[in-house]
Amino acid sequence: ATDQEVIMARAQVMLMAVALVLMLAAVPRAAVAIDCGHVDSLVRPCLSYVQGGPSPSGQCCGGVQSLHNQAQSKSDRQAACNCLKGIARGIHNLNEDNARSLAPKCGVNLPYHISLDIDCSV
Description:
By secondary structure, the protein is mostly helical. It has a domain at about 35-105: Hydrophobic Seed Protein. The protein contains 6 helices and no strands. It has helices at about 5-25, 35-45, 45-50, 60-70, 75-90, 95-105. It is elongated. The N and C termini lie far apart (about 70 Å). It holds the Pfam family Tryp_alpha_amyl. Keywords: Lipid-binding, Signal, Transport.
């Protein structure tokens, strides 16, 4: 094969590789399941409030709103709820009134209240 043929063959292989990458990028991805590490990182700024602090911070409410927006399916909401339940159990000096009022104070309407006895079947 001449140098010209080798260069053309390599160019064709590169074009096919680029086309494959572009096609794969266009394929819709399956929804990523909610995991507790992610939930924890979103609600961590709320810790001082749920321990009795004065009001939730903007960062706290941003995390609560983000979690609400990400948990669209029933299974996502149940997973997020179970994570919140586990997180609530691990909080020393949890103020349940503040925990219960967190979502409404952040302008989020949840089908459950954050507490030690959340019913996550909703």
